[in-house]
Amino acid sequence: MTLLNHALRAGHAHARTAQAPPVTALVAGGGGALGSAVLEALLAGRRFAHVKVLATRALGTAMQGLEPVVVDDFGPAPASAAPPIADAAVIVYDRERHANGRELAFLRPAPQDLTVQARWLRQRSVRTLLVVMPHAPAALPDALKAGLANLDEQAVAAMGFEQLVFVRSAQAPTTARAAPWLQRLADGLLAQMRLMVASPNQPVRVAKVAQFVAELALQLGHATPGTRVAPPELVWQAAQWRDPAPLVQAWLAARELPELSAPRRRW
């Protein structure tokens, strides 16, 4: 069964009765710019009882409510049943950074090992999985520039997760450019002046994408089971909202998305 089939099944399945959201969230890849922002968003909402992060060594963190889980790697399954680790997990793929060396203490997932990572989490009772691409296409690691392999995504979809979401890199909807060449030249010059360009035309902020991911992880506890793909346009639109909760709720329920009010442009 293909990933598309799984997505269609999620859209047509009968809605189940509301249940409590996952009480424990786990982040793999918390050392990058987006991964650390996702951690902060999960902790800031205080809507998860526990927030864990995979680390390669003990962490001295000042983040209240954050619980490091020290592991060497996504190794093979143990001989006996592995103890539960979390209800929901977020795998964040991000470009490696070397700001202060702190990110080296976090386990950094490799994109080519998606199936190994997903199997490792599933063996530890994770029911909800979000696979998150970098917030902008330009930040894609080399291993992700061609996208995740469809076979890998389909293999993960067949592992039995109750909720599985692939979150793509944010990208504004494309529009036809029929303006005369002089207008295109003016648009190009204005694009160099950040303060003169409306916020929807600016690159999305990491914190806004992280807010969307955190809200998605929370609301999936009430959604119909299945596999979904959050397209680039949806991630971009969510980044334009002060609170993405209504957008996430409408998308998960397969309803018409709320309209985005364009901010007033000041010149």
**Shape type:** globular
Number of helices: 8
What number is the mean pLDDT? 79
Total beta strand runs: 7
CA-atom Rg in angstroms: 19 Å
| Largest sheet entry | 7 strands, parallel
Low-confidence residue ranges: 11-18, 193-200, 262-267
Distance between the termini: 53 Å
* CATH class wording: Alpha Beta
The appropriate CATH architecture is 3-Layer(aba) Sandwich
CATH homologous superfamily heading: NAD(P)-binding Rossmann-like Domain
Structural class: alpha/beta
- Strand arrangement within the widest β-sheet reads 3-2-1-4-5-6-7
Content of β-strand? 5-15%
Find the CATH topology: Rossmann fold
Please give the share of residues in helix: 25-40%
Domain count, please report it: 1
What does this structure look like?
About 30% of the residues lie in helices and about 15% in strands. With about 270 residues, the protein is of the alpha/beta class. It has a single domain (about 5-250), classed as 3-Layer(aba) Sandwich (Rossmann fold), CATH 3.40.50.720. The protein has a seven-stranded parallel beta sheet with strand order 3-2-1-4-5-6-7, sandwiched between helices. α3 packs parallel to α4 and α6 crosses α8 (about 245-250). The protein is globular.
